[in-house]
Amino acid sequence: MAKSMLLVCRQSPWSGSGAREALDIALAGGAFDLPVSLLFLDDGVLQLATAQQAAAVQQKDLSANLRALPMFGVDELYVDQRSLDARGLSAEALDLPVTPLDDAALRTLLDRFDLLVTL
Amino acid sequence: MTTLHLLSHSPVGDDRFDSCLRLLGSRDGVLLTGDATYALRGDSLPARELAALPKGFPLFALDEDLHARGLSAPAHCTVVDYPGFVELCGRFDKVNGWL
Amino acid sequence: MSSIDVEGRSIALDKDGYLVRLDDWSPAVAAALAEREGLALQTAHWEILDLLRAFYAEFQLSPATRPLIKYVALKLGPEKGNSLHLNHLFQGTPAKLAAKLAGLPKPSNCL
After folding, report:
1. Structure confidence at residue C108 (pLDDT)
2. Which of A111, B24, B51, B62 is most buried (CB neighbours < 10 A)?
3. ipTM of the complex
């Protein structure tokens, strides 16, 4: 049985390579049928905001790539409600379907996985 | 499962420290290295938050990083060297490095 | 780097035979690329190439084998979205070869 992994994505899409690296891990894991899930935390929730235009700064379209996660078998996507609140985002108006969790649910989530990778 | 949270960024002006403390599990531990050891500084807000953790909470700090910053650890924090760091990583089920 | 001539135009290819400029693609380019691989494109190939181009338009990346199978199954049904059918059409390496013929970048999460 492969070890389950939770990727904790904490970086904004525009702050450097962290967001992209986390996505690449998720896609590679999914391509090999590994049990990978994602949690968006802190500035990482900004990856889920709508209407972002990567082409304006000559970057690859992270939003479109994130929408491919279910095709790669990465279906469990979670987001920290408090991080959303602090940044004026609503869980109902994000770029892809994610499950918002409160602090208690997040503690249970982090406990459940064999491996945590925070980027 | 038990998790050792590894912090290395300054607790001030960065979300890592706050998010880590907010999401700590009841059996987790925290190891402060690098600029995260500033969280032990005197009467600072992060130091007060660490002091407010439950009694006996597994809190550790890396000796040389403390020393380099002219800091000393309070009684509720265990100071470890690098071999101690490695031993700690094996003592918990998993390690979460807040990169 | 190499190139192929299609309808009087020289099309640049990378060392693995993928298009250097993705907007060089046309059905005639796909047919010429397929010929280099010893493949004559039939209707069954074209419907997969069309799907791959739709996948890329939607997600901005080339699928590895598993997501390709999943996407084809979703759009065309399980009788076409399975590894047997896709391997048969694309010489056993559907993610790589079909991406090449559809004018997509080489899939990065694919051995």
Report:
1. 81
2. B62
3. 0.88
**Quick one: which of A13, A17, A15, A18 has its CA closest to A49?**
A13
pLDDT in tens, C75-88: 999 999 999 999 99
What is the CATH number that goes with domain C43-101?
A: 1.10.10.370
Q: Which residues of A touch C58 (CB under 8 A)?
A: 64, 67-68
Inter-chain CB proximity A65 and C61 less than 8 Å: yes
Q: Name the DSSP class of B93.
A: S
Instruction: For domain C2-36, give the fold.
Output: Dissimilatory Siroheme-sulfite Reductase; Chain: A; domain 1 (3.30.1420)
Per-residue tokens: C23: 């907007």
Contacts of B11 in chain A (CB under 8 A): none
Average per-residue pLDDT in chain B?
A: 95
Angle at CA of residue C83, ends C78 and C84, nearest 5°: 95
Domains and CATH numbers, chain B: 3-97 (3.40.1260.10)
Contact C68, C110 (CB under 8 A): no
Q: Model-level pTM?
A: 0.89
